[in-house]
Specification:
The chain is an alpha/beta fold. It is built from 14 helices and 24 strands. The protein folds into 2 domains: about 160 residues, Glutaconate Coenzyme A-transferase (3-Layer(aba) Sandwich); about 230 residues, 3-Layer(aba) Sandwich (Glutaconate Coenzyme A-transferase).
């Protein structure tokens, strides 16, 4: 069953449909070998989930010009490929992408796994995301076995008879050690003040989620239900803030080397597919669910742009709309958008009068309860259009409040 890498690449034929795992653990060595033989990728239709922050093994210029990639997220290094039609960024939430996968059939699936356990099962490690759904649609599956990736007993597995061939490909897990600063520590403190003991929490990766976790260390009985978690999980567990009797679910864990070393002892953690974490029927059963997402900018109506910056597509909506809608619908739930008030060294406001013509409305004003910056909390629940604008102007950086007020006055006269 163990084969040379090149023989795994040889299993793909021009014109086929291939699913290549993305997330934290893409099969980078397989992709690199494919790119050494561009003719092998002639007419290939590759579906993958490369996303901002995480590794992107694809160099589109090294693939055959007729090879097309498709995925649910955008990232800056794929901009030219998107313009050329060689990368198709689908404007779908994660639930929408699950439906897309269910309608596909892949000739081959290529994944990365940890060494098999005593039962012959292959662990998907800390990065599961869409794999359970995608592998159900793959006729054949091959895997790169990474001896540097520890099998996780509470994670997701692939049975031995599902994988046709494997090769060994050592690859250290990417490390994401995220610090905080004064502004994000303030945001974390403000968000923590919105949460009660016993809530269910969704956050992500970055300075703000890290600061939120640190501010929650004094809380108790928190349950994690998220698409992505980082070192904050470890900090909350060690502080005794997590509910020890609950199942904490995520599709992907990314963080520091210390986090990866700690993961095998994480009590109650389950790393599962998006089809479990994001499914509406799953989310509807959560108690007191608080979804905390970020944004590139928020306008005075409460609309949030998560995808375009300076007119350029840099990300995708991901699972944020799925979680935000669920939090808005669940009794006791709360949809929070937390972001720094400015960017570009304080020269630009993230609170804007209206989303511009080059921006993208990823979260509508109907999907947001509260917006938080380092300057305060804007509670949009039960607020009128004008009250929303006033609250959002109040949490903008002070130097931008007057021009925002003038812009709103002009806009309000047309409402």
């Amino acid at each position: 069953m163990i084969r040379p890498l090149q023989s795994l690449v040889g299993l793909v034929e021009p014109g086929q449909s291939v699913y290549v795992a993305g997330g934290l653990t893409p099969p980078s060595a397989w992709v690199e070998a494919l790119q050494h033989d561009p003719e092998r990728s002639r007419g290939l239709h590759i579906t993958t989930t490369v996303a901002p922050t995480f590794p992107n093994p694809f160099d589109v210029d090294r693939l055959h010009p007729s090879c097309v990639l498709t995925g649910p997220m955008m990232r800056p290094d794929l901009s030219e490929a998107q313009r050329q039609g060689r990368y198709r960024a689908l404007p779908l939430t994660f639930i929408g992408f699950l439906r897309h996968l269910a309608e596909q059939t892949f000739d081959l699936g290529v994944i990365q796994v940890a060494p098999a356990d005593a039962h012959g099962r292959w662990s998907l490690g800390p990065s599961v995301e869409f794999l359970p759904a995608a592998l159900r649609r793959c006729k054949r599956v091959v895997a790169l076995v990474n001896p540097l990736m520890a099998p996780l007993p509470f994670g997701s597995w692939v049975e031995a008879d599902r994988i046709e061939a494997v090769c060994e490909a050592p690859c250290p897990l990417p490390s994401y050690a995220t610090g905080t600063d004064e502004a994000t520590e303030t945001i974390g403190h403000l968000v923590a003040g919105l949460l009660d003991d016993g809530c269910t929490l969704q956050t992500g990766l970055g300075k703000v989620p890290t600061a939120i976790a640190r501010s929650l260390r004094g809380h108790r009985r928190i349950t994690i239900h998220s698409g992505l978690i980082s070192d904050g999980l470890m900090e909350l567990a060690l502080a005794g803030a997590l509910d020890e009797d609950a199942a904490h679910r995520t599709t992907l864990v990314a963080g520091s080397a210390a986090l990866y070393d700690w993961l095998p002892q994480a009590r109650g953690l389950r790393i599962v597919g998006v089809d479990e974490t994001h499914a509406p029927q799953t989310l509807a059963r959560l108690q007191r669910f608080v979804a905390v997402n970020s944004a590139l900018e928020v306008d005075l109506f409460g609309q949030c742009n998560l995808e375009h910056q300076g007119g350029r597509a840099v990300s995708g909506a991901g699972g944020a709309p799925d979680f935000a809608r669920a939090a808005r619908a669940i009794p006791g739930g709360l949809s929070v958008v937390a972001l720094n008030a400015t960017h570009s060294a304080g020269t630009c406001s993230r609170i804007v009068a209206t989303l511009g013509p080059q921006a993208m409305t990823s979260l509508s004003r109907l999907e947001v309860d509260v917006v938080v910056t380092e300057f305060g909390v804007a509670d949009l629940r039960r607020a009128s259009v004008h009250e929303r604008a006033a609250a959002l102007i109040g949490i903008a950086a002070p130097q931008f409040r007057e021009p925002l007020a003038r812009a709103w006055h002009a806009r309000a006269s047309t409402l």
